Amino acid sequence: MKVDTFVPDDYRPAENEPFMNDRQVEYFRRKLQTWKQEMLDQSAETIEGLQGSARSVPDIADRASEETDRALELRTRDRQRKLVSKIDAALRRIENGEFGYCEVTGEPISLKRLDARPIATMTLEAQEKHERRERVHRED
Predict the structure, then answer these.
(1) 83 and 49, same structural domain?
(2) For the chain, what is the domain count?
(3) With contact defined as beta carbons under 8 Å apart, do 92 and 73 qualify?
(4) CATH code of the domain containing 73
(5) Residue 79 and residue 113 in one domain
């Protein structure tokens, strides 16, 4: 386990520093942990909201509307669950020293891409190639 690295709140990873140095790694670790906590908090709110709305509504149109809202909440909750799983995987890559490197090419993923999407596992080029291949296979 590493000793905590001091990273100021206004720090942003820069291209002119060594890739995935201790400060960058700590920056992304914190970013991922904060994001995960936000997702978990939102999930708790969703669950509370769903439990609070579990009541009998006599009007059929109101009931249909409520069921539609409930289904949307559950779908959103499922997306959040999958996102938390991806965040956990990114945190494991940080612990293993694999974070920030493309799982296909092994090349560094751009800092801009990681800052925008810290769960990214591929460079933009590798991701685009992967998506093109998926589209071709889907059309077969």
Answers:
(1) yes
(2) 2
(3) no
(4) 1.20.120.910
(5) no
Q: What angle do CA 109, 112, 118 make, to 5 degrees?
A: 65
CB-count burial class (<10 Å; 0-12, 13-18, 19+) for 59: exposed
Q: Determine phi and psi for 101, rounding to 5 degrees.
A: -115, 140
* Structural domain boundaries enclosing 50: 19-99
Backbone angles phi, psi at 32, to 5 degrees: -70, -40
Reading the chain (140 residues) residue by residue, the pLDDT tens digits are: 454 678 888 899 999 999 999 999 999 999 999 999 999 988 877 776 666 665 666 788 877 888 888 888 888 888 989 999 999 999 999 999 999 999 999 999 999 999 999 999 999 999 999 999 998 887 75
| In a domain? residue 4 | no
Amino acid identity at 125: E
Asked whether the beta carbons of 112 and 14 are under 8 A apart, the reply is: no
* Residue keyed to tokens 């560094």: 108
Contact present, 5 and 17 (Cβ < 8 Å):
no
Q: Are residues 74 and 29 in the same domain?
A: yes
pTM over 0.90: no
4: left (phi over 0), alpha (psi -120 to 50) or beta: beta
Do 27 and 91 belong together in one domain?
yes
